[in-house]
Design goal:
Helices cover about 45% and strands about 20% of the residues. The chain is an alpha/beta fold. The strands form four sheets. The chain has a six-stranded parallel β-sheet. The protein has a three-stranded antiparallel β-sheet with strand order 7-10-11. A hairpin with a 7-residue loop joins strand 8 and strand 9. Helix 4 runs parallel beside helix 5 and helix 4 packs across helix 11. The longest helix is centred in the last third of the chain and has 24 residues. It binds 3-acetylpyridine adenine dinucleotide. 3-acetylpyridine adenine dinucleotide binds next to helix 1 and helix 4.
Length: about 325
């Protein structure tokens, strides 16, 4: 049986780490595409030279032409530019929207059957735009944010409770960023919900609120430490978990930016919700009961994503029509 093919659009910090993890896990052969000449070829060669040492079988290559991604089973998109000092959110939106137009066209032409995972920021708007430009089915285009946000939440909770990260589950909803909605009553240690752990004296409400805020600011905390870029190891690990769920038909329940067509009372929007990922891509949207406060927080998050999507439509009206 031929190996699966994983195309990485963008060979920067996250792209390189995605390639290493895909190799180590033997998910398939990897092609890194980037507009920077030599960069994807250089990274792929360097990474390929880890395979004899680490003992994995995967072909790694680089490309500057979309032909290189032909027939990919999975495409993970990190192409774009990060926000630089003096650049407004709309400036960034305009630049990365153009990138999504090119990437969407490339995917439509060479990998129309792929499962596409978008990581480029601002995430919820970019995955919506990428779906529009590519014209792929909605269940085959998804955004990575919730797996990372919940991983951060789980890590901070495990530290607080001095238990294994493996025994902590965490639930986050909504858009990626300031308005993300962590849900304590659906987050547990070995099945015990966080509000019960407060009652048991394991932590306090105040400490829990601080952890939730730290989770919301998780990306900014790393940017302020690194100074030259944003997080890449955990974002890459999160993207790979989603790719693996698809390639191995694991039916994993993961929080992802998924297309809503009536679920949670929302239409024509990508936003973070729990989904089942298997061979059919996003096979199911898990619609949970929200209380009034959670509904309000989720709606606020949805409103901010709608604002970004509207801004995309203003910058490039062709995105509204789709491919
Ligand atoms: P970086 O190391 O700058 O890599 C981006 C790569 O994209 C560079 O190698 C560029 O050459 C390449 N590129 C630029 N334009 C194009 C184009 N038109 N076609 C193909 N390649 C292009 O960034 P990174 O890897 O650190 O981050 C990538 C993206 O992920 C950024 O938009 C980040 O903001 C975003 N990000 C998202 C999360 C989420 O949780 C959603 C977390 C961390 C980073």
């Amino acid at each position: 049986m031929a190996r699966k093919k994983i195309a990485l659009i963008g060979g920067g910090q996250i792209g390189g780490t995605l390639a290493l993890l895909a190799g180590l896990k033997e998910l398939g052969d990897v092609v890194i595409f980037d507009i920077a000449e030599g960069l994807p070829q250089g990274k792929a060669l360097d990474l390929a030279e880890t395979s004899p040492v680490e003992g994995y079988n995967a072909a790694l290559s680089g490309a500057n032409d979309y032909k290189g991604i032909k027939g990919a089973d999975v495409v993970i998109v990190t192409a774009g530019v990060p926000r630089k000092p003096g650049m407004s959110r709309d400036d960034l939106l305009g630049i990365n929207l153009k990138v999504m137009a090119q990437v969407g066209e490339g995917i439509a032409k060479y990998a129309p059957n792929a499962f596409v995972i978008c990581i480029t920021n601002p995430l919820d708007a970019m995955v919506w735009a990428l779906r529009q430009f590519s014209g792929l089915p909605h269940n085959k285009v998804v955004g990575m944010a919730g797996v990372l946000d919940s991983a951060r939440f789980r890590y901070f909770l495990a530290e607080e409770f001095k238990v294994s990260v493996e025994d902590v589950t965490a639930f986050v909803l909504g858009g990626h960023g300031d308005t993300m909605v962590p849900l304590p009553r659906y987050s547990t240690v070995a099945g015990i919900p966080l509000p019960d752990l407060v009652k048991m004296g394991w932590t306090t409400k105040e400490k829990l609120d601080q952890i939730i805020q730290r989770t919301r600011d998780g990306g900014a905390e790393i940017v302020s430490l690194l100074k030259t870029g944003s997080a890449f190891y955990a974002p890459a690990a999160s993207g790979i978990q989603m790719a693996e769920a698809y390639l191995k038909d694991q039916k994993r329940v993961l929080p992802c930016a998924a297309y809503l067509d009536g679920e949670y009372g929302q239409k024509d929007i990508y936003v973070g919700v729990p989904v089942v990922i298997g061979e059919g891509g996003v096979e199911r949207i898990v619609e949970i009961e929200l209380n009034a406060a959670e509904k309000k927080a989720f709606q606020k998050s949805v409103d901010s994503v709608v604002g970004l999507i509207d801004a995309c439509k203003k910058i490039d009206p062709s995105v509204a029509k789709g491919a």
